Amino acid sequence: MRRLWLVFAQAVTVSLAVLFVVLTLKPEWLNRSALTPVAVQPAVTTVTAPPISVANKGAASYADAAQHALPSVVQIFTSKETRVQRNPLLNDPVFRHFFGDQLDGEQSGRTQRQLGLGSGVIVSEEGYILTNNHVIEAADEIEIATNDGKKYLATVIGTDPESDLAVLRAQGKQKLPVMTFAREDSVRVGDVVLAIGNPFGVGQTVTMGIVSATGRNHLGINTFENFIQTDAAINPGNSGGALVDVNGNLVGINTAIYSRTPGGASLGIGYAIPTSIARNIMEQIIKTGSVTRGWIGVEVQEMTPEQAETFGLNETQGALIAGVIRHSPAEAAGIKPGDILLSINNKPQQDATAMRETIAGLQPGQHVQMRVQRQRKQLDLELEVGKRPPLKMNQRK
């Protein structure tokens, strides 16, 4: 009996040893027959992305777009004569007793040249150049430099401070390379864009980013705001330069940056005026030398949720009339401070920004129907649109 147990133990030991070797070296031998039943695993459904076609791949280079746009972007150099600030010591009676007459003579009539720089976009073969108003504001001498190194003097055709746009014209009869405009409203969030300009005066520079947002407003930059936001690096000197798409077509005029650092270093938040706005303003300036906008003579403000609830309105509905200017079309029509403007020619006005843009787009002399709410009652008023005067002429009632 003892002999049988010894033989059995040896057989089991050998079997286990063989099984261990097979599992280690040739596990596939056991796949055809399982030693014990195995529960059937449920099928797993996976989603596999389709192969990426060449057309959908990101461009390896934007050299073609840059080459198409670069010749039409110019560097702008400005200068203006400013009077030297009076020495504050001249206001001290004791100091003036000893040195006043002598220093008065030295200080009187002293001026200096203040230099500025920016960028611009050539928009016609006749030499018209689109840029920002703040680039050339108060300049008494303007020079442009093209991509090939040639320089020309330029004159101001007209400006529009409320949109921060200006049109220049290069002197001479030479033909300049013209920027191609992209189709209006073709810009989408996520589109790749290139910013071209003259940052810090280092020379023509191209940076790349995407469209971060469209329709940005309430920024306090301009009176009329409808910006493209991009994270393409924009720095001082880029103002007035081009924002182009991947085909090198103009989609905006670089105008401002958001920055918390001295000198305005780029933080990836830049703003450009879309061509849908810039082109309309440019054409008006070239045709008449100025921009004509509708005006009714009111000051408006956004309504808070609390105010909207008080007036029984949706918080995104209407614009609150904060003031009415003397002798304005609004005063003649009977609009009063505290009224809420709801619609213009049956077009609902969602907020103060929409109202400003709607009124600005009206033609002076045009008669419009305005619906206002006054003390929870709605009134329909007829108004003749006036011509928007310079900002300094606006006086609140």
Question: TL;DR of this structure?
Answer:
The protein has 397 residues and is an alpha+beta fold.
Can you put this structure into words, describing what you see?
It is a single chain. This protein is of the alpha+beta class and 397 residues long. Among the domains are: 192-288, Thrombin, subunit H; 294-393, PDZ domain (Pdz3 Domain), CATH 2.30.42.10. It is 21% helix and 31% strand. The protein has 8 helices and 20 strands. The strands form 4 sheets. A 6-stranded antiparallel β-barrel has the order 1-2-3-6-5-4. It is extended.
Strand order across the largest sheet: 1-2-3-6-5-4
Low-confidence stretches: 32-56, 393-397
Architecture (CATH level 2) name of the domain at 294-393? Roll
Order of helices and strands: HHEHEEHEEEEEEEEEHEEHEHEEHEEE
Tally of helical runs: 8
> What separation lies between the terminal Cα atoms?
122 Å
Could you say which structural class the secondary elements and strand pairing correspond to?
alpha+beta
Descriptive tags:
397 residues, alpha+beta, Pdz3 Domain, six-stranded antiparallel barrel, disordered C terminus
Secondary structure layout plus pairing:
Elements: H1 2-25, H2 63-69, E1 73-83, H3 93-107, E2 111-122, E3 128-131, H4 133-136, E4 141-145, E5 151-160, E6 165-170, E7 192-197, E8 205-216, E9 227-230, E10 242-244, E11 250-257, E12 270-274, H5 275-288, E13 294-295, E14 298-301, H6 305-311, E15 319-324, H7 329-333, E16 340-344, E17 347-348, H8 352-360, E18 367-374, E19 377-384, E20 386-387
Antiparallel strand pairs: 1-2, 1-4, 2-3, 3-6, 4-5, 5-6, 7-8, 7-10, 8-9, 9-12, 10-11, 11-12, 13-20, 14-15, 15-16, 16-17, 16-18, 18-19
